[in-house]
Design brief:
mainly alpha; 2 domains; 3-stranded antiparallel beta sheet
Amino acid sequence: MTQKPKPLHSIKVDGPIPAHLARSIIEETLRAAILDGRLPCGTALRQQDLADLFGVSRMPVREALRQLEAQELLSVTTHKGAVVAALIQGDATETYELRILLEGEALRQSIPLLTAADHELAAGYIRELETQHDYTEIGRLNRLFHMALYAKAPNKRLLRLVEDGLNEEERFLRFNLEAMGLGKTSQDDHRDLLQAAIERDVERSVMLLEQHLNRGVEVITRYLASPAAQNRKAAY
């Protein structure tokens, strides 16, 4: 009888972990595995299993899991403990409403501080998006484009919340973008947004961002209600 593969087997740990770096290494390793799908939605992450895997005590594991829960990559359930969180589902509208508020403020703070190098970085991501066919890379580049425009916002706590939202969207796009039939639809939005940022037109930039995110939530909400999405949900 073939044994079902265990998701933790996909994670490789190279040698002993320095005690003072244990929490951050565990957090980043698990975060990467969640984002790239090696740890699928619903995977239970038990502290002792992780402690054994990383060769550490349960304390840094517990701290790393708390950080990932704060980033909404994990949820805690009564019987399973820490579980890899679901992708964007029926609350897509609420999720995007919050993103509009947070990202709009980050953009407002960041635009006056952006340099020509920041603008070129964002433009480079657009050029890559225009030629990219790998859906995993499209999700990653979309996140990097937006963060390039927000990165100079001085409120670092705000930026962490913004990046959490973008990470959630990246995970969703990674596994659903092909089924949604998208990939090339948002570059006009991105170009217009970048041009407004270059012109330091804050109000226009925020308006364009809001329109862009609202288009996104319309497409995602329509997709989540479709039979194709229901079939994929059953497979998670």
